Recover the amino acids of this structure.
């Protein structure tokens, strides 16, 4: 006990937990009194452009901060045990804290320059966290993560340059007035691209499953509830630019496609963490597409509830991986219900919350979102995206449940599975408490009046029907011989296509870097060691050397020849002087 | 200023004292802190005496020169241990520092030229004297002749200005007479080579590879900045011409910066990679500077200071690996995270500084350069995106290949970082990350 209190994890768990409570109560106060605090710190003022560090404290940023601190405190508490035998636990904790710091900076600064501190920091720290287990897989995944995030940073940097048109980077002051301006549209495109990289939307989505090479507590904090929601959060702040424009439609389409892609691929995946990552991706797509319809408060609500149950899902997965001797393959699991009853029930709670089971956290946000989408005016494709993906979510959750909990035990017979590990169980307990009550609490807190949604009976139960059908599908998928060895080869190409995420990982690794590397090598050979030398140092050297060889020829010969050349030269000069004087 | 010049002059005899290595370094520290008191944030030339005086532009670069010089002494302790002509080494560093201070503080163009050129000599001796390989002779020639070839025309131009205008004082420079393209080219080309611009950068990687750590540090830290400093000083002469003709050099440097970033991705030599990355960074600096906008000029200065600290730190940290493993190759410098975990942190700081991560000065410089270049032409967005993205790519490549992966199996023995080394790195990174809190001093020099 004493040793526990002395450990760095416990210290920071207490600190972050207290901060979380503090921010939560501040949020209640701000919500109650309708307060917003701006704190501005001017770095540099030049030609009336000021580079300012802005801190914005409103209920939104405080609530998000409180959730980030809550989840990270539990994650740090959890890693007392999960990372127990790690030699560099201090490094781990420092990295997680740096990550939380960057996230906090991102949340509270609505200024395009000062947000870079959080935005770049998230990318860099998540790189360090992904490569934490030093193996080839995490090495590659880290590079993919960092460089994809860097694309977003570059877009943000370019949009900073565009925003100089307005003389200030505190966009929150003028974004509403300037939303129809030409430059603001370009900025909107750039911001959208930046947000899409951070939130792993479709052309950039390959890094999120790859980033599962990180330690599981990190995945719980970084790649489910905070880092990936940074893009969504940025777009919540920029939401005005996305409304009623082509950009909004594009966002709707891309978000829907991401949602669909992730949902389908999760049904074909066998890596436990990757399934959860794909489920995160699908939820991110949901948030993005809803954002394009303008329900930014609702998106924020879903973001928070999703953070709660997704962190729980990852922590439960961590417990399972831990007791399965670091195996993540769900084909190795089975009948875990007998050996890990507590973790499995927590896992189930969060899975059901993810599916939108009534009165769990996900229900309040997801059901509201789906009913609002039924209520609002969009086309059939988006409709299919939304509801098909909802069904798929239930499907892969049920498939996962059946694979890991109910089928016969496929793991080695010599095992030591147990969840009497009270440190991990405690953090699971707190999070599952929040996953149960979080939705309703937030609902009562954030929405002062009920939304009026007026639907016919069939549409009202449509979501439930879809969920039920999805559950059935997941159940059958887990039992069907489709995945067994005999049949899987008959759909080989289809299977590979889905299992490799519609080939996005190939598109964002080898096909992106191939030409730069080839061109780089060509430049090295042909420019730096080729033409530049030819027109530069080496050729000049050769030129001078040849001249001096000619000179040497004279020096080495008889003096007469030298003198004769001298005489000839003088005659030559006199001749030209003569011609010159005539021409005058 | 004279007091500081005499300070250095009188440090030179001290070189020949027994065991003067750390003494000189400490005195340089002392001088640095004294010099910091002479900060005058007024936008004018101050501390005038005879032909010398400083404004904020020269002040920052002089401080940087002193700082880098003392860090050079700190990071080449191996020389002292091996008794490798220590006093001569310190003598050259002090000579170089003296000449650099004179270069940055004089405002007579001819004197500037004189010191600008003569600072090559101690650098050459540093490379020839303390380099590692026989190829250093060729590298020395490249260094000398690339610069000389481009700068003799500059001498002619200086005489021409004197002949036309009867003054070659920096603060009288104005764009008052019609000049032609040849004049413009001869005037700026010396600085473009020194910068170095793409296509005339060949001397830089060669010199860096062959130079000892001190030579690399001062090359990347200060000598490249001489070119930028010169351009910032002489551009009042050719403003109109520059607005017309600069597009040529901006294009070359932006495209070249992008190409050089690709080239960096194929390097396996750490020092070569860092050297090429400084060519790429100088490409952005040159591009921003030549747009002749306020943001560009100021950002150029900021990025020059930032790059001076950052790349000098990268060279010194690369040398720390070199001293342990005896190779600069990324195939041998692998998996250092397990051997030197704390050093790995510094690697990460420097690599992230190199890719302009906040809160480094690099970011401030890069933002303002992006502002100026994009406001100059929106087509340059393409190259800037390229540059910015690939700067991250090669910095991470450097970091991940040197720190991650399997250890090189032929290592016999290994020591973790010394306090001296961590101090060197700290003294690089500390101003780099903290000066942004008072960024007027390194930004608003104009």
């Amino acid at each position: 006990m004493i040793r526990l209190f002395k450990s760095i994890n416990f210290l920071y768990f207490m600190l972050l937990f207290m901060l979380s409570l503090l921010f939560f109560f501040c949020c209640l106060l701000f919500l109650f009194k309708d307060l917003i605090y701006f704190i501005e710190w001017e770095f540099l003022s030049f030609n009336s452009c000021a580079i300012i560090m802005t801190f914005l404290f409103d209920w939104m940023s405080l609530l998000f901060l409180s959730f980030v601190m809550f989840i990270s405190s539990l994650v740090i508490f959890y890693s007392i045990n999960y990372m127990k035998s790690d030699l560099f636990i201090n490094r781990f904790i420092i990295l997680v804290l740096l990550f939380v710091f960057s996230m906090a900076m991102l949340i509270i600064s609505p200024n395009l320059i000062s947000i870079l501190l959080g935005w770049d920091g998230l990318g860099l720290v998540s790189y360090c966290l992904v490569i934490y287990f030093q193996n080839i897989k995490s090495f590659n995944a880290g590079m993919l993560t960092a460089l994809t995030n860097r694309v977003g940073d570059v877009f943000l940097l370019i949009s900073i340059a565009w925003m100089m048109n307005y003389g200030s980077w505190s966009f929150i002051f003028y974004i509403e007035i300037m939303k129809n301006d030409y430059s603001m549209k370009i900025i909107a495109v750039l911001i959208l691209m930046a947000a899409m990289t951070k939130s792993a939307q479709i052309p950039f989505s390959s890094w999120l499953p790859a980033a599962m090479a990180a330690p599981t507590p990190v995945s719980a904090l970084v790649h489910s509830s905070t880092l990936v929601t940074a893009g969504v959060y940025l777009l919540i702040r920029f939401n005005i630019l996305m409304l009623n424009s082509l950009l909004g439609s594009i966002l709707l389409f891309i978000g829907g496609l991401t949602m669909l892609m992730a949902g389908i691929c999760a049904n074909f995946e066998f890596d436990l963490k990757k399934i959860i990552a794909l489920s995160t991706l699908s939820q991110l797509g949901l948030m993005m597409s809803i954002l394009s319809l303008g329900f930014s408060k609702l998106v924020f609500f879903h973001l928070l509830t999703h953070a709660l149950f997704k962190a729980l899902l990852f922590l439960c997965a961590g417990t399972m991986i831990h007791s399965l001797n670091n195996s993540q393959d769900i084909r190795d699991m089975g009948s875990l219900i007998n050996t890990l009853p507590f973790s499995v029930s927590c896992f189930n709670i969060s899975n059901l919350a993810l599916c939108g089971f009534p009165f769990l956290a996900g229900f309040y946000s997801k059901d509201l979102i789906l009913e609002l989408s039924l209520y609002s005016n969009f086309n059939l494709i988006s409709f299919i995206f939304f509801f098909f993906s909802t069904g798929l979510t239930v499907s892969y959750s049920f498939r996962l449940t059946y694979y890991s909990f109910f089928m016969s035990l496929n793991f080695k017979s010599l095992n030591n599975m147990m969840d009497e590990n009270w440190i991990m169980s405690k953090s699971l307990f707190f999070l599952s408490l929040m996953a149960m009550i979080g939705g309703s609490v937030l609902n009562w807190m954030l929405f002062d009046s009920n939304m009026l949604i007026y639907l016919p009976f069939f549409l009202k139960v449509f979501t439930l029907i879809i969920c039920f059908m999805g559950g059935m599908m997941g159940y059958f998928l887990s039992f069907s011989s489709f995945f067994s060895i005999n049949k899987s080869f008959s759909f080989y190409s289809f299977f590979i296509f889905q299992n490799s995420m519609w080939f996005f990982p190939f598109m964002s690794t080898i096909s992106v870097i191939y030409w730069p590397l080839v061109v780089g090598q060509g430049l090295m050979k042909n420019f730096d060691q080729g033409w530049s030398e030819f027109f530069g140092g080496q050729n000049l050297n050769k030129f001078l050397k040849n001249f001096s060889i000619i000179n040497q020829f004279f020096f080495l010969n008889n003096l007469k020849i030298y003198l004769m050349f001298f005489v000839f030269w003088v005659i030559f000069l006199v001749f030209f002087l003569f011609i010159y004087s005539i021409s005058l | 200023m004279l007091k500081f010049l005499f300070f250095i002059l009188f440090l030179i005899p001290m070189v020949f004292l027994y065991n003067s290595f750390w003494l000189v370094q400490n005195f340089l520290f002392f001088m640095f802190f004294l010099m910091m008191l002479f900060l005058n944030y007024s936008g004018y030339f101050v501390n005038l005496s005879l032909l010398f005086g400083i404004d904020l532009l020269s002040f920052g670069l002089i401080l940087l020169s002193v700082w880098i010089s003392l860090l050079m002494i700190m990071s080449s302790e191996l020389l002292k241990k091996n008794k490798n002509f220590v006093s001569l080494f310190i003598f050259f560093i002090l000579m170089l520092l003296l000449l650099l201070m004179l270069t940055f503080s004089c405002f007579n163009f001819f004197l500037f030229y004189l010191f600008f050129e003569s600072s090559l000599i101690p650098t050459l001796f540093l490379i020839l004297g303390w380099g590692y390989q026989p190829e250093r002779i060729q590298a020395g020639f490249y260094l000398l002749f690339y610069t000389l070839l481009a700068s003799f025309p500059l001498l002619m131009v200086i005489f021409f200005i004197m002949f036309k205008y009867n003054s070659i004082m920096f603060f009288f420079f104005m764009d008052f007479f019609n000049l032609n393209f040849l004049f413009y080219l001869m005037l700026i080309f010396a600085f473009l080579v020194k910068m170095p611009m793409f296509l005339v950068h060949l001397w830089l990687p060669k010199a860096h590879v062959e130079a000892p750590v001190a030579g690399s540090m001062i090359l990347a830290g200060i000598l490249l900045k001489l070119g930028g400093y010169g351009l910032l000083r002489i551009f009042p002469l050719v403003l109109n011409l520059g607005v017309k003709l600069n597009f040529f050099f901006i294009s070359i440097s932006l495209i070249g910066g992008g190409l050089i970033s690709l080239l960096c991705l194929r390097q396996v030599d750490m020092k070569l990679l860092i050297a090429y990355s400084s060519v790429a960074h100088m490409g952005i600096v040159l591009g921003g500077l030549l747009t002749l906008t306020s943001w560009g000029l100021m950002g150029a200065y900021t990025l020059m200071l930032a790059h001076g600290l950052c790349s000098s730190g990268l060279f010194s940290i690369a040398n720390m690996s070199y001293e342990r493993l005896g190779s600069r190759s990324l195939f041998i410098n692998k998996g250092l995270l397990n051997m030197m975990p704390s050093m790995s942190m510094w690697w990460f700081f420097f690599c992230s500084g190199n890719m302009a991560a906040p809160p480094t000065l690099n970011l401030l410089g890069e933002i303002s350069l992006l502002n100026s270049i994009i406001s100059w032409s929106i087509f340059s967005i393409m190259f800037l995106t390229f540059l910015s993205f690939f700067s991250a790519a090669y910095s991470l490549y450097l970091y991940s290949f040197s720190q991650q992966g399997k250890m090189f199996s032929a290592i016999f023995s290994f020591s973790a970082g010394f306090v001296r080394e961590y101090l060197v790195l700290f003294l690089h990174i500390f101003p780099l990350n903290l000066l942004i809190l008072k960024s007027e001093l390194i930004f608003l020099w104009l």
Observations:
- The first helix of chain B runs from residue 2 to 14.
- Chain B has one domain: 2-408+415-443.
